[in-house]
Write a structure and sequence with these properties.
InterPro entries: DEATH-like_dom_sf, NACHT-assoc, NACHT_NTPase, NLR, P-loop_NTPase. This protein is α/β, with parallel strands linked by helices. Helices cover 48% and strands 9% of the residues.
Length: 443
């Protein structure tokens, strides 16, 4: 608890009292603690009274004394209200501390023991648009995908990650379900990490009292278990262990973040599952999720689901109030990323210039994940004794593919199997076969 919060809590509690109770409260303070409070206290208004109590009793003492006086006056409802406010604040503090510990660092790409990177140091803003396409270049020299419709992005505007849940970002109070889409590697999870860290550090989104990030791939291990919503929160967030005795899900602004819908193994049977409204009674995980998304479990909770485009169709249209799309980096953001992640600015400029000279690589670098790969590959190449860089696209894309496979293995804690080797052999055989026939691309 800090000073601003304690002032707010005491003021809110005492404001609930009528004039007679306020007068009796001040009189009880003077009568019960004459060594602390003088009779002049009777003349203080609520704000002055709160300041005096805190000045004389410190934060913890002021809470204890206020609760004791309220209970002595048989105002147990107001005493409980004050205790509940403080307990909620304590849980929020512990939850934020846990989030800061978890999200302050990023291993970006392949995790290495002992070499985490400060997320704030390398994070680069991405292009996020409301419901449509940004102006990222998707024209490719090998396979023409088509240019993005710039007029649409201009009409809708570009949203900064910090503004996703603010009115200026398009997410008004009557919208409770945000669906964020984006291709693999466009930076969706980084956007989520930015949001969570800003909340935990008090830099933004403070209107959200609790934020609960739950990756879909972690829900998969619970798909055959019956949980209540309260039990689910306890499972992922031990800091919230007293949530069952504190009704905050309906009273406070709460946000659930579910990242990686494409990895979800739940059926999400929106139309088959029956209505479920009890947050304390266990049910199947699929029943729990569909009713949470529909707003049946807690109508005041905000839901943020992050998904690749194809998988996003699994969410019932009736649930979704706003769709945003993460489009990756524009040209300026690519350069900013390299400047942030490569300490040697001369080397950063060399790599950036080289990538711009190869059209396919320049286009692929609108994907933050590919930017990391390119940075990793070309830093090593430029810093070797001969300074040679990969001379073919095959070398670069092969490295990118290997990193993706290793990232998948680390993320899901899977042992090496023959599947990856078989897959790579088939891709290689198909590439050689098509190269012989003059085909530039294949499905």
């Amino acid at each position: 608890m800090n000073l601003p919060f304690m002032k707010k809590a005491l003021h809110a509690a005492l404001e609930r009292l009528d004039e007679d109770d306020q007068r009796d409260f001040k009189k009880c303070l003077v009568d019960c603690y004459p060594q602390i409070f003088e009779s002049s206290l009777l003349e203080h208004e609520i704000l002055g009274l709160v300041d005096k109590i805190i000045d004389m009793c410190d934060l913890e003492g002021s809470l204890k004394i206020t609760v004791l006086i309220l209970q002595r006056m048989k105002l147990n409802g107001t005493a409980h209200f004050l205790q509940r406010m403080c307990k909620r604040n304590e849980m929020q503090y512990e939850l934020k501390a846990s989030m800061k510990k978890k999200y302050t660092y990023t291993s970006e790409g392949l995790a290495k023991q002992g070499s985490p990177t400060l997320f704030n140091k390398i994070y680069t803003e991405m292009v996020i648009t409301e419901g449509g396409n940004g102006s990222i270049n998707t024209e490719h020299e090998i396979r023409h995908i088509g240019k993005m419709v710039e007029t649409r992005s201009k009409e809708q505007g570009v949203i900064k990650s910090r503004d996703i849940f603010t009115p200026s970002g398009g997410f008004m109070d009557h919208h409770r379900f945000l669906l964020m889409r984006g291709m693999a590697g466009t930076g969706k999870s980084a956007c989520v990490q930015r949001f969570i860290l800003d909340w935990a550090e008090g830099e933004g989104h403070q209107d959200m009292y609790f934020v609960f990030p739950i990756p879909f791939h972690e829900l998969n291990s619970l798909k055959s278990v019956k949980y209540s919503l309260i039990q689910l929160i306890h499972h992922f967030f031990p800091e919230m262990k007293e949530l069952d005795t504190i009704s905050c899900l309906d009273d406070d602004k709460v946000l659930f973040i579910f990242d990686g819908l494409d990895e979800c193994e739940l059926p999400l049977a929106f139309f088959q599952n029956e209505m479920w409204c009890n947050v304390k009674t266990p049910t199947s995980m699929d029943m729990l999720m569909t009713n949470l998304f529909k707003g049946n479990l807690t109508a005041s909770a905000y839901i943020w689901v992050i998904s690749r485009p194809k998988a996003s169709r699994r969410i019932s249209c009736s649930c979704v109030h706003l769709v945003t799309e993460v489009r990756g980096f524009n040209d300026a953001q690519k350069e900013e990323y390299f400047r942030k992640t490569i300490s040697d600015q001369t080397l950063a400029n060399q790599i950036s210039t080289h990538l711009q000279s190869v059209r396919s690589l320049d286009i692929m670098c609108h994907l933050p994940m590919f930017c990391w790969t390119a940075s990793h590959v070309f830093q090593r190449a430029f810093l070797t004794s001969n300074g040679e860089v990969p001379k073919t696209l095959t070398q670069t894309f092969t490295r990118f593919l290997l990193i993706q496979l290793n990232t998948k293995k680390q993320k899901y804690h899977r042992k090496e199997s023959g599947e990856n080797k078989e897959f790579l052999m088939k891709v290689g055989e198909t590439g050689i076969s098509n190269a012989g026939t003059g085909q530039a691309h294949f499905k």
